[in-house]
Specification:
The structure is a homohexamer.
Chain A (H helix, E strand, L loop, with lengths): L4 E6 L14 H9 L20 E6 L7 H17 L4 E5 L5 H9 L6 E5 L19 H7 L5 E7 L4 H10 L2 E4 L14 E7 L21 H10 L3 E8 L10 H21 L2
Parallel strand pairs in A: 1-2, 1-3, 3-8, 4-5, 4-7, 5-6, 7-8
Chain lengths: ~270, ~270, ~270, ~270, ~270, ~270
């Protein structure tokens, strides 16, 4: 038997270095998820409209929180939700929310691996003096030495500093300039998917703060969700910026990817 | 010798389940077709600016019609135009117009096959109680048992019910999640192409009512138009929604695909 | 040792046949190039933020100039900048600026070859009676017999007249309908890259005057920049139209491609 | 002592004759109401951030309902909320929701008068054969003979038929072509304000289905809210169409007008 | 008895100094005029849906024409249409079309006066060396000494040169900085209304090439149409630029003003 | 004789509480100021295209600066520019730049009065703990006791706290809800105009971070610029947010208001 997947909003964006907005995203992704313009089946054939497929765990109240206080609130909120035993997908917020969300998962799953879809490695040791910056969560995460493996896909902006960090943390980076090994992402064990929407090309996901042309198509991300090894146990979708999202096109992409992540989790739960 | 291709507008959208607008599309597609920002050659090298290449058959007057009355009007209008012996491409309107348009063709071409480019299978036995819904035309069509073969490309939203309909009607579905067989669409005999613009990814065709991310690129559709077997004898382009089409980008896609369909028809006519 | 790459704005658009606007582009591309939403590393790992990597040569004053006078002003301005020995990338302006810019390069580099990324061949012998039209620069250029080889990529609009011109000038055209030979562009010697943003599909570069669906993705262009043979010694980026560029998405594409062109030039300079 | 104002969403738009979308509006108006880009004070100086100023009564579940069934559901839902004794402002939905919402108020307030801000009189005896059309609610309402007085402001589209209805129901119409008497709207007794956002000029409220240029400014509507006589006891804000609302500008107008309506209700409650 | 008002499209914009586009306008204004989102009554109560109220005279074929040739074609086309005795409203096109259109009227109406609504006086003796520039039509017109009186409303950009032209031609200019005399426009005899949409503030009419903030509201223009003295015998609506007109908002303004001009003409015809 | 007016960019927005972007504004306002779509005459008849009318003092380098350091840099930069004796208009940046800019003016002009056009009083004693917040500059300013009089126009968001600050600092506030005294702003002596674009209604200036409906029209602001007493000696235009400014409409408003401010300064200099 499977458990319902909990959906939890993490409306925080005060760690954004360039453009605020992602705090407004959870409501928009939910709207797209429920949109009458699409149905509730995943491409794997699972019916998310069936009773018990998922539950809405609401939004955490993060208004005005920042730094360690915000970290603690998100860590506590995600941990509380995971207490139920239900798998969880968080809706950001900017990418800084992934650090506490993943740490809460790492407490429940030994040997957790991470698949990160992103334009940016988010590995800055320090960005504008803010250790909780949305440019740094995966540096913070890897410093904990709690993560078995970090795999990054879609990267197209590595600085010299970030290349050093990649070496330091032994990260498996699949840059857009060379995707030849992307079908060889053979992982096993529990896997968490952290999906920054700017990993997609701005043509597919214009509603993000950082336009970095030359990225993944929506189809490539869907194929990735269903294609890698291991067991998907949870994840996040972050960095939707409604201020840039004319006609809600990117929210629909987020809603679609949410459905496909749910389909993969259900498939993996059922073994 | 070839005959001119007739272009006929079918401005109807009251069978749209989510967002009206396609009734405004024929005028916008014509504007894009004639736009001074492009020339009149197809990629196959045919000059649509040459005398006799095509003729504008105007728009049917469908204002205020719905249900069986609208069906009859479209069936009659398309049949009348086909009387001339000219091949015909219809400009919708929502996808509900395809059912009567195809039936009029089926009366003239024995053993007609259909290639449908679409995000959705449009096979609902019943949608909101409306048998003429734009979600159902291909169920209605296959029930007539007049169609030799239906091939669907670009599909990414099959419900359990629609999977049953696929089985029931023996449809050849090429879902976006598996396009490996798409170059093997070996058809022969007369072929009608029903092109729902939401078969394209919303990045390429944002001006549609139903954003279903993960679709075809414009190039994939052009290659498909020129690539399948059989003889293209007519078709339709449907579901352009000008309300969503900032700067007329999707109208230009429709205009381009119209030109390429015309190029294919001319090539096939000339044998 | 390498020399700084000069960036020179050529704000002219009175040779545009359809929609003015590209004269506003240099300022927008610079803004995107400097945007705090991205960093200054190329995908080849070069740091454009390093001292001496580039210099801004400002904009030429072209306001109100047209025809031969504008040609002369651009030719003189580009030649003056090349005097320094620095490689140069020009920012258009419409594509008519490429003719004088390339001629100034041809005076310095014997046996210069040209790689043109474009939806259109721009080979009209005559367009609306204007020999300097943005539809004609490569006809003018090839008539000089100063160019070793012209390679065109992304073309999808050849008229019968242009196919004749292709024959006449022995141009190597890679149409979008057949990119099978694109990885075989084996060139040697000095190479100039003329990049018309409408070579990209409008999904990736909506901010251009001529929407010609079915084009290249941003990733394909980046791969092309780093993939062909020969030594890249300069180039131009043209036809950005800010009037069509909602949220500056296409300016960011231009800024990205500018960075990658610079990375390729630096790599080639260093041997 | 004052009671909290209840805010109730009525997400229904299947009575829209032209363009669906208003069913998505309640979420957007709430988002704007709570936006961190504004504060919670009304122009009358009331602090809506104070405890007990208002409460969110959620949305009625109207998905898939239409005709008499939808009417009954809205009437029941509004009546239930009014049971608490709290004043209520409904968020549509299209204007058809106003008929049942006002009827529920008419059951509690004898001699209720209505102030309608609107581009259209909404008095069609019959529109496309749908008695519940969003073009007809005030015809239905006046037929009940339960309303003391209907005052319409902002009207600029009267047909001959509607002018007859104005006579028949003795409506006080203030057309945009003559606002000379607008400061003389001297009412007394309980007053309900039905605010169709298309009463504003499309420059101020572009996010509506029916653009009818020549309307009220936002300031004129705010002044009207605070200026008429009588006691404001409730109201509705309808016809926001998020599909047309780039950057959420009209949602912010709706949020502002909601705040000012609340300020007026609080002032009138306190006497 | 009244005659039907002829509506004639003049799709020319190659005299635009800044941004092409108005050649696409006639189709958009017709679409707005017929839009199902509004009805066919004017604010004066005339029903434009009645038989014989108007007729569509189509578009003149002006593609590729310029200078004197274009002038002659427009003059001839307008004159031909006026032969019928029907009053005529032309749909531009840029403002250069007004010169030949008005001259054709001046041949039929002695002592014709002109009311021009515009941000710009359009009185340049010479602009970029083009005597037919859209910046000069009213200089050309006044030089003919065929016009009894020219009244300009909405002007907010007079140069020193244009102030001299105002003196020279004895024009009655109502600048936006002083509208105190606008209700005193007491004219008599036949009157032609030339309506440049940039006379409105860009908030009300964003879809024009020249944004000149500080202009008229739509309501002020409607009031002007119905308020001045004399008999309205024809006119034009020019400078709509669909490239700038998101969601067709300005086309709806043009459609509304067209209806009101028609209402005024009908009223004046009936005496 | 008059001195040229210096125009200085202050690209800072890290004190924005809601949405970054104004740091990009100086370049956009300059582009609009120079746009070929308008001329260089003010409504007062001054020709800004004349030699010596103005000079561009460039942008201060404020990248990465915040708090006291940013204050000091702006204060020093403005003071340095004023050393020349030229009057100065600053282009923000967010409204936090006005505090140091005004202080630099207060050092040169005794008895300086301030006219602030704004939706918000910007008088927070403390906002999110940031004394330099863009919500607080006028509290900081009035605490210095260096300002003779502060007059605020366009205000529509006073909180109880801000009403206390108004009392404390004896500010003359003209709220939008009562503009009856706006023509009575009789000031004398040197006057500085601080123009926050959100003082305008979002219909006229959508490109700002805080949409506060119910504001001034562009015309009202122009009339205000030319209408108050005293001598205008300098000012600022702040809070343009290009991320929200589709088609650069608000930049054109800023460019227009810049021209009119310059016209007023020139008129006052000439006495």
């Amino acid at each position: 038997m499977t458990r319902p997947i909990a959906i939890l909003g993490l409306p925080q964006d005060n760690n954004s270095s360039f453009l605020q907005g992602p705090a407004l995203a959870p409501a928009r992704i939910r709207e797209a998820f429920h949109s009458a313009s699409a149905n509730m089946f995943t491409e794997t054939g699972h019916d998310l409209g069936a009773d018990g497929a998922w539950r809405d765990a609401g939004d955490l109240l993060l208004d005005g929180l920042s730094g360690q206080v915000a970290y603690d609130a998100i860590y506590a909120g995600v941990s509380d939700t995971l207490e139920s035993g239900d798998p969880l997908i968080s809706l950001g917020g900017d990418h800084s929310v992934a650090f506490p969300a993943i740490m809460a998962h790492a407490d429940r799953y030994e040997d957790l691996s991470i698949l990160q879809v992103d334009a940016h490695a988010d590995l800055y040791d320090d960005f504008d003096g803010n250790p909780f910056s949305h440019a740094s969560p995966f540096a913070r995460l890897m410093e904990t030495e709690r993560i078995r493996k970090l795999v990054q896909v879609g990267i197209r902006t590595l600085t010299a500093h970030q290349r050093e960090q990649v070496e330091r943390f032994n990260i498996d980076v699949h840059e857009m300039s060379d995707l030849s090994r992307i079908n060889d992402i053979h992982l096993d064990g529990p896997m968490y998917l952290s999906l920054d929407l700017d990993g997609l090309d701005p043509a597919f996901a214009p509603g993000v703060g950082h336009h970095e042309p030359g990225g993944l198509s929506t189809r490539m991300v869907i194929d990735l969700i269903h294609g890698f090894g291991g067991q998907l146990i949870g994840g996040d979708i972050v960095e939707l910026n409604p201020h840039r999202d004319l006609h809600g096109m990117t929210a629909m992409v987020a809603g679609k990817l949410l459905k496909e992540m749910m389909g993969r989790i259900i498939k993996d739960m059922r073994g």
